[in-house]
Specification:
The complex is a heterodimer of chains A (219) and B (315). Chain A is 33% helix and 26% strand. Chain A has helices spanning 41-48, 71-78, 96-107, 115-124, 140-152, 170-185, 197-201, and strands at residues 2-10, 16-25, 30-34, 56-61, 64-65, 81-84, 158-162, 189-193, 206-211, 214-218. Chain A has a 6-stranded mixed sheet with strand order 6-7-8-3-9-10, sandwiched between helices. Chain B folds into 2 domains: 27-63 and 168-311, no CATH class; 76-157, no CATH class. Chain B has helices at 31-67, 82-94, 107-118, 145-155, 165-207, 209-217, 222-253, 255-262, 266-275, 282-311; strands at 69-74, 99-104, 131-137, 159-162. A 4-stranded antiparallel sheet of chain B has the order 2-3-1-4. The longest helix of chain B has 43 residues, at 165-207. The radius of gyration of chain B is 34 Å and the shape is rod-shaped. Classes of the chains: A alpha/beta (219), B alpha+beta (315).
Amino acid sequence: MVRFENVGLRYGLGPEILRDLSFQVPAHSFQFLTGPSGAGKTSLLKLLFLSLRPTRGLVNLFGRDVSLLGKSEVADLRRRIGIVLQDFRLLDHMTTYENVALPFRVMGRDEQSYRKEVIDLLKWVGLGERMDALPPILSGGEKQRAAIARAVISRPQLLLADEPTGNVDPTLGRRLLRLFIELNKTGTAVVIATHDITLMDQYEARRLVLHQGRLHIYE
Amino acid sequence: MPLVDLGHERPQLPARARIQSPIVPRASIAGRALVAVVAIMTFLASLTTGAVLLISASASEWQSDVASEITIQVRPQAGRNLDSDVAAVTDAMRRQPGIVDTRPFTKEESSQLLEPWLGSGLLLDDLPVPRMIVARVAPGAALDLATLRAAVQRVAPSASVDDHRAWIERMRSMTSAAVLFGLGILVLVIIATIISVSFATRGAMAANRPIVEVLHFVGAGDRYIADRFFRHFLLLGLEGGMIGGGLAMLAFGFSESIAGWFSGTPVGDQFAALLGTFSLRLSGYLVLAVQAVMIAAITAWASRRTLFATLDDIE
């Protein structure tokens, strides 16, 4: 599903922050991406999400060489990927319900076909009472759960999450992890970037450890 | 299969959770300023076009009036009787093919013609004043001017024939200059509209950059995003076009009453002499309506072009 070969990344003329990354993310797999702060976890997620292009090496996503992709093909591929970023990126003028339903809306689907699914998921992540609330009045944890719900609602083939449990209590953290595991069981490959050891200890999964720009894999 | 199973927890669907917000909030686009710019531009463009239409209509009326007449001037000459020369020329003209009416100006009429320059109470007998004969040409008739001149000069050697060609040429070039001037202003107005709309679009895109980024995140293509913005700009353009075009049409509609306020003043009389009335024909109003729609379309086009250019820069 994802294949990196000798990938390097630098911002401008600065030093290379990711060096010689070679790894694969197989379909249906589950992995944690970890490493100290500033190790390049977010940059690697952005490479996986096509927000950044590598300065060298080959990135192959869903069988396509990303260096050869046009803008419309990038949009097509992104529909197969869900992403949860640390800053949530919710739209402030839309309710929680509308934010979570956004991927379906962009696909042009009729609201009746997804309304129940969106509401069920919002209740699952504990936002059942906040469906009509606008993001500016949500707490950090609520925003995070809304962002996660938006990323998983369309059951993407690949889910990328950057510190998805950073703003929630341990109980809710476990519940969200269960959501990712359920999603993985239905066929989604999951990559969770975190440095929360407690979270990683709760589920036996492959670990990709970034250290000083290089990747070490623990199966 | 549902992603999550709420089991017995599943409550009834709340009635309020519905898609109601637009993807791009209308308030986030500096709409009023853009509507005002488009309205002003459409108003100026409509005034220019209306003025050009009025001038062309008046000019073509003059041209047809002047072209349907020829004037013969009989100068006094020593040893010849002016009155009998005038009568002979009138008679000769009547016999020419293509001439439907010939009217010599009497002495009194000639003195009236000269009154603005020489004052009243003029005795033409004391002055060597030429006499005029106006001949009406049958519509569509092709006159043989050389034969006509020869026939006239045979009976009165001092007579000259003027078919107003020089006048018509001057008028034609004046009308063309006015039309070109109007077109030049229209082009400037359209360029200014495109630039204003491009700036407004860029501003709107900059203000909505976070929305565009999120839309990209959830897999929306540039076309989808551009369409969401495009609708706003098309509506704003149509609103501006309708206001500007409508005001210009009202201005032309009421122009006769406005012209009435100035009648009797030198300025009013000059305009009345130049343009006749200020009222546009129905076809003129249609042209203004089409132009307003065209400016709205240009607004939409300029915005769409800028949208795609800007979307290329947003990851």
